[in-house]
Amino acid sequence: MPADFTGLIQCDGYQAYESFIQSPVRKGQIQLAGCLAHARRKFFEAQAEGEDARWVLEQMQQLYRIEAKLREARAGPMEVRAARQEHSAPVMERIHHKLQSLRQSRKHLPRSLTGTAISYALNQWDKLSVYLRDGRVCIDNNRIENAIRPSAIGKKNWLFMGDPKSGDRAAVFYTLIGNCHREGINATAYLTDLFTRLPMETNRTVHRLTPKAWAAEQRAQNQPQAKHCTPTL
């Protein structure tokens, strides 16, 4: 990641991320957004312990139903934020209140599955709530998790990149290939065309070569030409 990066990163609760953004070079420049899927997973693992975990799962399911409707409606960031503030925020508030009550009651042992799930969610709560305020942020980072799974499987074999610049270049290619998969296009065909056309592009036209734009261009080229019929008099 460039040293001058500013913005928002969505991730799980791994403590190293917090240390990373608090480093002298990056402090105050990066905001972390939490992943509800990671919090949900812990309650899913704890549901056999009793109804409290199952109740939280049911509430979280409501949040995901709201997200599904927003995706179906192809809502933009402003619409997403408004809908989340109206419908998702009250559900999140109910969950938060319940988790605080459970922790104060000491009903679940801290090291039990439910106790661990409660602690994780409460410790991550500010980050988990970021998506309510920013319509660009997803409810979880499952898309990224799925996109990097192939590289995660082989990371022990690729442990040493050579030098930091090699790591940056690898990250660029992972991003490009991941976006190709997301757009449903052949990564090899895309990269071949990209490297052929890139030398002829300028800073003002290079946006035409993103995977999304390239896929749209290919679809337009492959559409059958409309046949022009001469009307019979």
List keywords for this structure.
233 residues; mainly alpha; 2 domains; two-stranded parallel ribbon; 2 strands; 61% helix
**Gyration radius, to the nearest Å?**
23 Å
Number of strands: 2
- Which band does the percent of strand residues land in? under 5%
The overall pLDDT, averaged over residues, is 88
Query: What's the N-to-C terminus distance?
Result: 68 Å
Number of domains: 2
Largest sheet: 2 strands, parallel
User: Helix coverage percent of residues?
Assistant: 55-70%
Overall description:
This protein has 11 helices and 2 strands; from the N terminus they run βαβαααααααααα. With 233 residues, the chain is mainly α. The protein folds into 2 domains: 35-141, no CATH class; 160-222, no CATH class. The chain has a two-stranded parallel ribbon with strand order 1-2. Helix 1 links the parallel strand 1 and strand 2. The model has no long low-confidence stretch (mean pLDDT 88).
Which secondary structure elements does this structure contain, and how are they paired or packed?
Blueprint: E1 7-10, H1 15-21, E2 30-33, H2 36-46, H3 51-72, H4 77-105, H5 113-123, H6 125-128, H7 130-133, H8 142-153, H9 164-183, H10 187-197, H11 211-222
Parallel strand pairs: 1-2
